[in-house]
């Protein structure tokens, strides 16, 4: 919204300046009396003005807008620091490291643990748990690999201790000592933004030219009746468990819920997975969701999609979830419940509300294409802003946030989301980059589909994992890749070749023309490209080639 008076004077000035530029250009054109006049300094200057006027007008409006937002906040004559970064998760760590690398004075503030959720409660511990659970599953398949029998006994407490040992081993990568040694000032404490130029921590006020907010997100706990009265688990406190739940209810069929449901089931817990939406992994194509759900059912997980959690009850010492499904109700008994229905951005508690930093409709911090908030010197990156909540996208955004915060007066870089890969580490794994059929159809983007079944891949057969597929979406009639979905063993690793191809504009012909080691899983990528090539073979030319060979045979 803009006030009428402001709109009027800005419009008048803009029209006046624009008129002067156009009149000057017209006058210069009218005065040309020879071809050499086209290259006259006056005319060239007029056309330069025509080109730069929109950019200049945009810049002036941005300056006016920035001054208006910053009005009322006294700007220090000198600054203690070039940059203050709040939050030492993936985004904050990378942003502060970049700032230190270009010799700026940067302070990183963290109130909890270095490394953020990914190291301490997310990616790292979950993958360590999944690895142990996978080993248990492999022992059950011993006869498939030529063993007469195999068994494994486990102590769940020791499994969880191993998880913590894995975290401890990776901790030094994100430690205070490492980042201090790299030139980052690290302060352990709770930050509070006092103004666009000042941050308070541990009773001290730091002045800074720019601020990056990288405070991450936390598990979202839905307001379901009775849930607050239960000692529910989330991905934050799950790692404190030392006894395996006998009956585990997992609420949420997204990546976190699916990964952990399968892991606990493989340790012997009776797992019920409840998802409100009509399928697991709602962002994926139907055949992907179906394949994962069928695998879960075969492993003994009770999968309930289209079930909405209505109320939690405790009756005679028994925990129950009342779920709605197709107009009826279902009662589900459980011992412990894991809530995995998404994550909420950490936007409160450090001064953003008082300052007036805006939120968007997703309740994350609103940012423009340069990762600036409505305060031009306050930037954001990671889960606190989205739109993707992945460790690698937080790191990706951190480069843009840091560079724009430090060098934005010379040039700003628009954050690039064109090629964002991600994976869900179920068994089988699901990995994707770019569009799938579901998204392409919703956006009315024309595409062709090429598939390759991993059940035909030599290495997959040798490994006893001959299932899954690669699905590649391309521009109709061309080898340009729009997106790739992989379901199967090592999908998160296999997707990397397609990520590189999409990032640098390489098509399926380039992948087909690249030597892949035999026998490896990466050959699946080449065979998918080969399937595309066969589908686009020049039939008329091949008919003439066939005639040539017939003629050569006499």
Task: Provide structural commentary.
The chain is of the alpha/beta class. The chain folds into four domains: 4-70; 81-219 and 345-407, FAD/NAD(P)-binding domain, CATH 3.50.50; 227-341, FAD/NAD(P)-binding domain, CATH 3.50.50.60; 428-539, Enolase-like, domain 1, CATH 3.30.390.30. The protein has helices spanning 4-30, 41-70, 90-101, 116-120, 123-140, 156-170, 176-181, 255-266, 286-298, 352-355, 391-407, 437-442, 458-462, 491-503, 508-512, 523-535, 539-552, and strands at 81-86, 106-110, 185-188, 191-195, 198-201, 204-213, 217-219, 247-251, 270-275, 302-305, 308-315, 318-325, 328-334, 336-339, 343-345, 378-380, 421-424, 429-434, 448-453, 469-474, 481-488. Strand 17 (421-424) and strand 18 (429-434) form a beta hairpin. Helix 1 (4-30) runs antiparallel to helix 2 (41-70), helix 5 crosses helix 6 (156-170) and helix 5 (123-140) packs across helix 8 (255-266). It is globular.
Q: What shape does the CA trace take?
A: globular
> In percent, how helical is the residue content?
25-40%
Give the tally of β-strands.
21
What is the average per-residue confidence, as pLDDT, rounded to a whole number?
A: 93
Number of domains: 4
Tally of helical segments: 17
Which regions contain 5 or more consecutive residues with pLDDT less than 50?
Answer: none
Query: Over the alpha carbons, how many angstroms does the gyration radius reach?
Result: 29 Å
Query: How far is it from the N-terminal to the C-terminal residue, by CA?
Result: 82 Å
Let me know the largest β-sheet. 7 strands, mixed
CATH superfamily of the largest domain: FAD/NAD(P)-binding domain
């Amino acid at each position: 919204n803009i006030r009428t008076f402001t709109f009027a004077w800005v419009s008048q000035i803009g029209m006046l300046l624009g008129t002067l530029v156009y009149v000057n250009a017209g006058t210069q054109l009218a005065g040309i009396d020879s071809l050499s006049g086209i290259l006259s300094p006056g005319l060239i200057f007029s056309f330069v003005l025509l080109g730069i006027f929109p950019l200049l007008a945009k810049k002036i409006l941005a300056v006016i807008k920035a001054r208006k937002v910053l009005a009322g906040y006294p700007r220090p004559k000198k600054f203690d620091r070039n940059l203050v970064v709040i939050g030492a998760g993936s985004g904050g760590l990378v942003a502060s490291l970049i700032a230190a690398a270009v010799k700026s004075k940067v302070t990183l503030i963290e109130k909890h643990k270095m490394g953020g959720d990914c190291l301490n409660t997310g990616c790292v511990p979950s993958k360590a748990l999944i690895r142990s659970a996978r080993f248990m599953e492999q022992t059950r398949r011993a006869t498939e690999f030529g063993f007469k029998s195999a068994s494994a006994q486990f102590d769940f407490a020791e499994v969880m201790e191993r998880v913590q040992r894995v975290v401890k081993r990776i901790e030094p990568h994100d430690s205070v000592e490492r980042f201090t040694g790299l030139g980052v000032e690290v302060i352990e404490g709770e930050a509070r933004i006092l103004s666009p130029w000042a941050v308070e921590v541990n009773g001290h006020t730091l002045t800074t030219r720019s601020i990056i907010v990288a405070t991450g997100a936390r598990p979202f706990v839905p307001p379901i009746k009775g849930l607050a009265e239960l000692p529910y688990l989330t991905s934050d406190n799950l790692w404190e468990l030392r006894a395996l739940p006998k009956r585990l209810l997992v609420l949420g069929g997204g990546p976190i819920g699916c990964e952990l449901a399968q892991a606990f089931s493989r340790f012997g817990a009776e797992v019920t997975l409840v998802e409100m939406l009509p399928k697991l992994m709602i962002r994926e194509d139907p055949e992907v969701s179906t394949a994962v759900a069928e695998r879960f059912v075969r492993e003994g997980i009770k999968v309930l999609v289209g079930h909405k959690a209505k109320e939690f009850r405790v009756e005679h010492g028994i925990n129950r979830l009342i779920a709605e499904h197709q107009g009826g109700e279902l009662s589900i008994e459980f011992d412990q419940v894991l809530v995995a229905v998404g994550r909420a951005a950490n936007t409160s508690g450090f001064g953003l509300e008082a300052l007036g930093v805006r939120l968007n409709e997703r309740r994350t911090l609103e940012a423009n294409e340069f990762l600036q908030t409505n305060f031009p010197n306050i930037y954001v990156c990671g889960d606190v802003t989205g739109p993707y909540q992945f460790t690698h996208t937080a790191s990706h955004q951190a480069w843009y946030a840091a560079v724009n915060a430090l060098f934005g007066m010379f040039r700003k870089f628009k954050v690039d989301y064109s090629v964002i890969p991600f994976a869900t580490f179920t068994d089988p794994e699901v990995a994707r980059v770019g569009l799938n059929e579901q998204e392409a159809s919703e956006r009315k983007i024309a595409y062709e589909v090429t598939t390759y079944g991993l059940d035909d891949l030599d290495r997959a057969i040798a490994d006893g994992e001959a299932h899954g597929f690669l699905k590649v979406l391309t521009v109709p009639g061309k080898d340009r890749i729009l997106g790739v979905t992989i379901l199967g063993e090592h999908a998160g690793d296999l997707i990397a070749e397609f990520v590189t191809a999409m990032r640098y504009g390489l098509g399926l012909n380039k992948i087909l023309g690249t030597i892949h080691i035999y026998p490896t899983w990466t050959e699946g990528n080449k065979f998918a490209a080969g399937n595309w090539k066969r589908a686009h073979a020049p039939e008329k030319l091949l008919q003439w080639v066939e005639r040539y060979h017939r003629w050569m045979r006499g």
